[in-house]
Amino acid sequence: MSRFPMPALTRRAFVASAAAGAASAMLPLLRQPGANAAAMREVRLRAAPGRTQLAPEPFGETSAWCYNGTVPGPEIRVRQGERLRVAVENGLAEETTVHWHGVRVPNAMDGVPHLTQAPIAVGERFVYEFDAVDAGTFWYHPHQRGFEQVGRGLYGPLIIEEPEPIRVDRDVTWVLGDWRLMKSGEISDDFGNRHDIHHNGRVGNTVTINGRVPDSFAVRKGERIRLRLINTANARIFSLDFAGHEPIVIALDGQPVSPHAPDGGQVVLGPAMRADLIVDMTGEPGSRASIVDRFYQGLEYRLVDLAYADAPLRERAPDWPMELPANPLPEPDLNTASRNEVVLTGGMMGEMVAQDMGESVGPGAPGGMMGDMKPGGMMGDMNSMMGGMMRMMNSGAAWFINGVAADEGSHVMKPMLTLARDKSHVIAMTNATAWHHPMHLHGHSFRVISRNGQPTRRREWQDTVLVSPREKVEIAFVADNPGDWMFHCHVLEHQAGGMMGVIRVA
């Protein structure tokens, strides 16, 4: 998984979740009780260095970057239709911003430095204000040097509640975090290194739930829980097996979906993705059941145990309705939609995958590291591939969208696509690389309408879609939110290496 040393506490203690603080510890809430639907919710967030108990004892606290002194930052809960005003103070030694991931905000509130706002300078503050248009599970994080600022702990959950939430015994948020810790228990400072950028990103050696390495989560037989999962990792993909329990997916990326069991029985979340689950506790009193992450073959580990109390809540789970009300999203018209092709290239092994798919990026093109590869003798091919590899490694660019690698440092981001406002559009994304890419579009939610030419079963609404190697995914949406919007891979090292662009809605 990683070529970096594990902390001395051993792999099982960190990744396989040996004894630590309970994952059920409540996140601090920022919510004003008793306000009506028209109320303004005012929140203050301060981004600053701090210390937090990531690793279990005997390790001490770890230096991290925090919102209001905690990792993750405080859970902000508002009601759908309310207005949220967040004053963000920058207590870091560098610039920052806050992006409201998945929330359909006005363009000026989107938190992308040099695109929608000037970054918040050291010691300065910025006020974000927007309506909570959609109910659902969202989150907030910086978009300034995200590969490091997020990797050091700057993120938190934003929960927008339905006016009449579905009935459950408990509404629980699990913020899934991934850390690269050294033997000392401190965070490795090798952010943005070439190996991570050119491969699958910064995958750590320590997984946390709500900022702690978890041991157990207390439950009772017959209990029904709404479990909100948020993947805040830079690069780690989760595939959670609930150990004989049968979770039902009721929302993806904050948007309701027809309740259903996850494909293959496992809940898969790429970086930045969210899922709302209904989990009925069907185990026997006093028993334990392990939730296991099985995404990386041969590197499976126990995330956390469901620990049943000795006394049941009830003998069987209740049969309460699970269906969530739809959010006010405009339905795309596929008959009139424009069609736009996007090809993702680059990374180690990228050009070989592109050629396997029949994609052509052309001799010497910037669309992958092996741009000069042509049919012919094996030795010639290998020489060409190695030459392309060296050119890519020696340049700052590693990843490309339609042959273009973005350069955040230049602060010049010309639109890769211009879409007519209030019209329907289809974007067909082809992943001609050897790696997964969770592709995120700001300012909008979209329907995932096909994978590899086959219509999706549920046409789910998402804002981040995980595109597998060699896969082609089509999304459709109405471009009803004007402005210049970031479109990028949410493996944050891939974004830093060039896999991002701007989609203009005008």
From TrEMBL:
Coiled coil: none annotated. Residues 58-164, 171-282, 409-505 form the Plastocyanin-like domain. GO terms for cellular component: outer membrane-bounded periplasmic space. The keyword Oxidoreductase applies. CDD domains: CuRO_1_CumA_like, CuRO_2_CumA_like, CuRO_3_CumA_like. It holds the Pfam family Cu-oxidase_3. PROSITE patterns: MULTICOPPER_OXIDASE1, MULTICOPPER_OXIDASE2, TAT. Gene3D superfamilies: Cupredoxins - blue copper proteins. Keywords: Metal-binding, Oxidoreductase. GO terms for molecular function: copper ion binding; oxidoreductase activity. This is Multicopper oxidase family protein. It comes from Allomesorhizobium camelthorni. The lineage of its organism: Bacteria, Pseudomonadati, Pseudomonadota, Alphaproteobacteria, Hyphomicrobiales.
